[in-house]
Design a protein that fits this description.
This protein has helices spanning 2-10, 16-67; strands at residues 71-77, 88-94, 106-113, 118-122, 133-136, 142-143, 150-157, 162-169, 174-176. It is built from two helices and nine strands. It has one domain (12-176): minor pseudopilin epsh domain (minor pseudopilin epsh fold).
């Protein structure tokens, strides 16, 4: 009889106190881990945005060389103070000539918005004032006006802190710094 009571006691399960202790430990671990997870997630968004922009720039350069027609990557930014939602976008278009294209109506890649937590900033990139784009020539070089060596696109936090810089040199080299 004594053995039967011991067997029943061991099969009863957890006490309420044990469940509360386990739950308290789980909540504490979750509370400690959440801020780190959110910072990591934002960091991934910044890196992914920079990588995506660099990939589009490299693809535009490659397409220009292969097709012998100019390609352009255009950027649009929201003017501060930025409204809620995406703060920038970019797309790739193709010109009608090998050099000095006047029209860029063929859209190769439609507008891609950057994530809400990412802000793009750049300088006036081309010879056309007010036109934020980078044009590639059939030799693989980039048209960068008023700049001796390179144009930059900066991926920033909403607070303005720079995270990544994409540099496009006038010889067509594209780097993420």
């Amino acid at each position: 009889m004594n053995r039967e009571k011991k067997a029943n006691v061991s099969q009863q399960g957890f006490t309420l106190l044990e469940l509360i202790v386990v739950l308290a430990i789980a909540v504490t671990v979750f509370a400690i881990a959440t801020p780190s997870y959110l910072r990591w997630r934002e960091s991934v968004e910044y890196r992914t945005s920079a990588g995506s922009i660099a990939a589009v720039l490299r693809e535009a350069r490659s397409r220009t060389i292969v097709s012998n027609l100019q390609h352009r990557v255009e950027f649009e930014m929201s003017v501060p103070p930025a409204p809620p939602g995406p703060t920038g976008r970019y797309r790739m278009t193709r010109g009608e000539r090998a050099a000095n294209s006047q029209t860029w109506i063929t859209v190769i890649q439609d507008w891609t918005a950057v994530p809400v937590s990412v802000t793009l900033s750049l300088i006036d990139l081309t010879a056309n004032p007010g036109n934020n784009s980078i044009d590639f020539n059939t030799s693989g070089t980039a048209n960068i006006a008023n700049l001796a060596t390179a144009a930059t696109i900066t991926v920033r936090e909403r607070t303005g802190t720079p995270r990544y810089t994409i540099e496009v040199s006038n010889v067509g080299r594209i780097r993420i710094l």
